[in-house]
Amino acid sequence: NSNTSTSESTPVNSTNNPKLKLYGYLHSKPNKTVHFGPTSWRSLVDREENFDGLINEAKDYIKNVRKKWKFENDINKMSSEDYKSINVESPIMLLDNLARYLPCYEVVSNHVSRYVKGYWNRRTPILDNDEFLKDFDGLFSQMSDGSCHIRIKNKSIDYAKIALVLIVVKHSMNTENAYSAIRQAYDSTDRMLLYANKLLELSNFMSKPSIPALQTLILLRQFKMINPSDDDGGDGHKGTLQFKTAINMAIVLVLHGDI
Known about the structure:
With 259 residues, this protein is mainly α. It has helices at residues 41-47, 52-72, 80-86, 91-101, 105-117, 119-123, 129-139, 156-176, 181-185, 191-202, 211-224, 237-252, and strands at residues 26-29, 32-35, 140-142, 148-150. Strands 1-2 form a two-stranded antiparallel sheet. Strands 3-4 form a two-stranded antiparallel sheet.
């Protein structure tokens, strides 16, 4: 009803071509300036008058609990063990360390299958499922003791494909069950993400862009939004630069030509 849409309480103007009103919620930080939309949590807190004290009390409580959790778990600090396992002399040593760190092949394979069939892959269909599963079967195999064996077939691009498998498995693990003791115990320091980023480096993705590298960058950026150890839900400068790199890579690969 056009008569009721002119109210100041609605963010939509009453015109033949309605547009959202631009609220002036600009928050400046040392590394960025952020605009929060009319339905964002921070905008609601700023505009709420009746329950602003209660809302701010709840926000501060959640913030303090999260800060305490991050401090107790030493979040975002790379241990010497993590550093030594990733910064090695050769790619072969890196893959050997990764294979030893990963859970058994059956667990990895189950997470790959779970992600492909799951909600997040349907919500943001980044993968070519058939191609991804083919690459997984070609690069990962099961050893006699049940562990993973990882091999390289096509040089640099395979490192990007392995990185893609890692972020898929990590994504599946973190969305499997938020209260799973097994999930919390394994990879609590996000070493799989460190491996994924190191493998992207080995793929020379900045000079040799590829579809697997692009898919990995997008999923790494997406994962920051649900990763409890991320500082601000993927909205930080690292996530922004990561997404910008993905957009530039898509243009270099001429994917925008289909739009």
